[in-house]
Write a structure and sequence with these properties.
By secondary structure, the protein is of the alpha/beta class. It has helices at 30-37, 52-62, 75-87, 104-111, 146-155, 176-180, 191-194, 209-216, 226-237, 246-261, 285-296, 321-338; strands at 17-18, 69-72, 91-95, 115-116, 128-134, 158-162, 185-190, 203-206, 266-268, 275-280, 298-299, 301-302, 313-317. The longest helix is centred in the C-terminal third of the chain and has 18 residues, at 321-338. The radius of gyration is 21 Å and the shape is globular.
């Protein structure tokens, strides 16, 4: 497991603006919390051994069979479950697509003995190869087109598409139906990110029935707790929205990027979602993170532990316009101080 993910507020107790997590920071979860307060008797009993009621609710929402849905304890739990199942079913190699990307794909595959392939196609005749794609990609915000995804599915034995950030982009995404009707595509979804509830840990997989059946063979009983199941059902059945206007939110992301790029020594990359990678010409992301946290009570993500990035890279996600202005001014002050 990679140490050093974002949202490490526990290390900085006075944070007022958290740019380090990609999850929308200002969701109004009042109704959900009230609903869960009325359901607290659920903690008196074991949850469902398998979260079938939530799987049924998700299937109903997207017009699928429940046999195409598998709910997990967060999308990361699904990543490790998929790697374990692949290793038991003649998969010997994996590829992770464009770098940098989310590290848990590689960590999970190596945990279960899969070897990384240098090829962009299938490897050899002795085993099968799985390709992992993050779409939109964390940490860059890039998006694969549907044509690219279909091409990958023709080249690889299995393609896992992590769409955890699908609700933070206006770019076209592969649909649940398309994944369910495929031969070799597994789709990952994150209710954690869609509804801004990272503490509850709810993810789910959409895939052809035969693949879901194989995954179920490696699931553990009571893996998803009762309150998470209840929250998931309430959110899905009420079609809850945490971002009132995604277009306005992403327009603010572009304004933030433009302002950062006006700072000498700062280069913020293009993105199709609410988070972006920024590179410093001098100094380190670790020093900037510490400075922002202690002097300005702002938290960013040191991105130096992503493969392919350096000690000068950090990741941020869009906050309110006022918070974004504060961040830009604080980064400018740090960079000017570095030049003296």
């Amino acid at each position: 497991m990679l140490q050093g993910h974002g949202d490490d507020k526990h290390n900085y107790p006075e944070i007022q603006s958290n740019f380090s997590s990609n999850i929308y920071p200002h969701a109004d979860l009042t109704e959900l919390k009230a609903h869960l307060c009325r359901k607290m008797e659920l903690i008196d009993s074991y949850p469902e051994p398998e979260p079938l009621t939530l799987e049924t609710a998700i299937a109903r929402k997207y017009g699928l069979s429940a046999d195409n849905v598998l709910v997990t304890n967060g999308a990361t739990d699904a990543i490790y479950l998929i790697a374990q199942t692949a290793a038991k079913n003649k998969f010997t190699h994996f590829n992770v697509g464009t770098m940098p990307t989310f590290s848990e794909y590689e960590d999970a595959c190596r945990m279960f003995g899969l070897k990384q392939s240098d090829s962009c196609d299938k490897t050899d005749e002795t085993g099968l190869t799985a390709l992992w794609l993050c779409n939109p990609n964390n940490p860059t915000g890039d998006v694969y087109s549907k044509d690219e995804l279909k091409d990958f599915a023709r080249k690889f034995d299995l393609v896992i598409i992590d769409q955890s950030y699908e609700d933070y982009t206006l770019a076209p995404m592969m649909t649940h139906q398309e994944a369910a009707e495929s031969d070799n595509i597994i789709q990952l979804h994150s209710l954690t990110k869609t509804y801004a509830i990272p503490g509850l840990r709810i993810g789910y997989v959409i895939a052809p029935r035969q693949i879901i059946s194989l995954l179920r063979e490696n699931t553990k009983p009571w893996a998803v707790n009762a309150l998470a199941i209840e929250a998931g059902k309430w959110l899905v059945e009420n079609d809850f929205k945490i971002i009132s206007n995604l277009d306005i939110y992403l327009t603010e992301t572009q304004r933030l990027r433009t302002m950062l790029n006006q700072i000498p020594g700062i280069s913020a990359a293009e993105t199709q979602t609410n988070f972006l990678i920024v590179e410093m010409a001098s100094g380190t992301a670790a020093d900037l993170k510490d400075y922002l946290a202690r002097k300005h009570h702002i938290l960013i993500r040191d991105a130096s532990n992503f493969h392919g990035l350096t000690s000068r890279h950090f990741r941020i996600s869009t906050q309110t316009p006022d918070e974004n202005n504060l961040l830009v001014n604080a980064v400018r002050a740090f960079m000017l101080g570095n030049q003296k």
